[in-house]
């Protein structure tokens, strides 16, 4: 199935569920229009995946992933059938290209496919290709800047098959980093003066990778991915205290662990995390014209680990905060506000996907 032109770059879509399929669990978010200008969080939920069902963003067992989706739909009480999904950034090739601005839509599609073949190391019939006209090219009024995105068809079809197995329909196939960007841009809008002229560095610390996105006036000025995440600490807890994976993951967030945990496991992990963030900031300074960061936002499941915010603020000398993608939203009566405070940072991708319903 080829991607339609509204897919990867998130144009207006019908009401839908945001479903984030990671290597360890699936997260669901459903939003609606709030009574004010903002949104309303109708429901959110997560469900762990069997080990090996998804590996490095690739679905290895469609049946197990489908069953997990079935469970999370039932748990959340969601009734919508349309879903927004995302591909890991590592599975998608994106490229900005310049094309003539006077092309018809059909001619533009032909030209995009021709240009794409230069950048995609696969046969064109093996990929799903999408593109979006960004606007006039910077150096030529007669040309337009176009963003193209491509991914292996089989990877996209696996995700679609998961949904179809449980009676759901994929309406949007996004990119995880784009979904995160949609969610964080909304949060920045809520800052004083809408965050104008402020440089925000977002660190989404996941299980195995940390995604870094640095924004200025709603433009991404730097992004990269680092091989660092919270699964190492979880595995240390599992090995040291003989806990199951789920229990270790839950107690990692609360700190409800033996007295030896803090010195033997937590402190070394926090030092490593702070070092990763500090190095990333320094690399940003040396590889771009910019010499400051005004605010660090931490998101992802690891963001709420006790002590992480403090050590990063201390090492970087930059104001640091854990950020919720649901900040400022109304909450439906079924949403547990207390639980949401600790859960929310892990839902950045799912929230960004759910936001696609609003264009």
Walk me through what this model shows.
Helix 1 packs across helix 3, helix 5 crosses helix 6 (245-254) and helix 7 packs across helix 8 (308-316). This protein has 359 residues and is an alpha/beta fold. The chain is globular, with a radius of gyration of 21 Å. The chain has ten helices and 16 strands. The strands form four sheets. The chain has a six-stranded mixed β-sheet. Strands 13-12-11-14-15 form a five-stranded mixed β-sheet, with helices on both faces. Residues 1-13 have low confidence and may be disordered.
List keywords for this structure.
10 helices; disordered N terminus; 359 residues; alpha/beta; 6-stranded mixed sheet
| H-E order | EEEEEHEEHEEHEHEEEHHHEHEEHH
**General form:** globular
Helix/strand structural class: alpha/beta
Please list the strands of the largest sheet in the order they lie side by side.
10-6-1-2-3-16
**Helical proportion, percent range:** 25-40%
Please describe the biggest sheet, giving its number of strands, its sense, and whether it closes into a barrel: 6 strands, mixed
**In terms of per-residue confidence, which ranges show pLDDT below 50 for 5 or more consecutive residues?**
1-13
DSSP helix count? 10
Strand content: 25-35%
User: How many runs of DSSP E, i.e. beta strands?
Assistant: 16
Average pLDDT metric: 89
